[in-house]
Amino acid sequence: MATVATRLFRKLEGLFCVYKPPGVHWKLVRDTVETNLLKGLNDTELRPVAREVRYMLSQSSTETSDAPKALTLSAACVPVLSEHPLVTGPNFQQIKVGVGHRLDAFSSGVLVLSVGKANKVLNDLHHTCVTRDYTVEGEFGVATDDFSNQGRIVERSTYEHITRDKLERVMAILQGANQKALLMYSRVDMRSQEAYEMAVQGRLGPEEKSVPILLGLRCIRFEPPNFTLEIQCLNETQKYLRKVVHEIGLELRSTAVCKGVRRTRDGCFTVHQALTRNQWTSAEVMNAVQQYRFIKNKRSTRALKDPELHVKEEDITTGQNIANIRDAVN
């Protein structure tokens, strides 16, 4: 018969996401979540210690001191020490918490984690072609050795000549070049019906590991020297996104550094579902895992009833950009 802690652990097995704050290494986030889950599992109600009947020897006292003392047997109900918590220790001494697409120490945002058997699912997800969304903040007029505002300043430049129209023109050229790279790695003719159907179903993408590819690039704030970009991409790293900001500054005949990288979506996990620091508890994680299972089962049911409605939300941006991709080819 499973204990309360074992039943709770089975409910924790699954995928969920947390919000990684900036300046914190992803390993520290994983270790903190793992420690909190262990504490929550071991604080559950323990099964009562089994008891057994033992016959104890005792000497009965006699009236005369010269007579030998008689040995008698007495029954006693005592706990089984081999099953006592002080002997066996905690129910769970370690659990495996897996980490999906990682974030470096200076980035923040959605970080997907897994518990128990879901680590295999997370490994498969890590090698799946899913898009991720980022909000990247930049600043014109400065260049550093590592493309971030934390690095050593190597150059300063003017930026008064930069306008929003010029910035959007450079981003359009950059996005067009990346869309051509997407076609090359997808190995699918964009003029075919197959390409359109793959894009609608969210399956248009590199068949294997490829270079970082930008699927979408949009300016959502322009207040010189500061600006904010919204980026959808594949196979990226945070260092690559900082380099993109640097290259945009060079194309505008200026310089630029990245002030912050924030992941807002990783596949089907969004920033609205991410657990903040005070929610990294067993109860909150269990609720997040159950919610993910419910959404996954609901999608599977809809896909079985009507395959035409099976559209992956995590890759819907690819379907929205199919017209732009065809224009880039032509």
UniProtKB/TrEMBL annotation:
Coiled coil: none
Residues annotated as domain Pseudouridine synthase II N-terminal: 92-238
InterPro entries documented for this protein: PsdUridine_synth_cat_dom_sf (IPR020103), PsdUridine_synth_N (IPR002501), Trub2 (IPR039048)
Gene3D superfamilies listed in its UniProt record: Pseudouridine synthase
GO molecular function annotations of the record: pseudouridine synthase activity; RNA binding
GO BP annotations listed: pseudouridine synthesis; RNA processing
Family classification: Belongs to the pseudouridine synthase TruB family.
Protein name: TruB pseudouridine (psi) synthase family member 2
Organism per entry: Neogobius melanostomus (round goby)
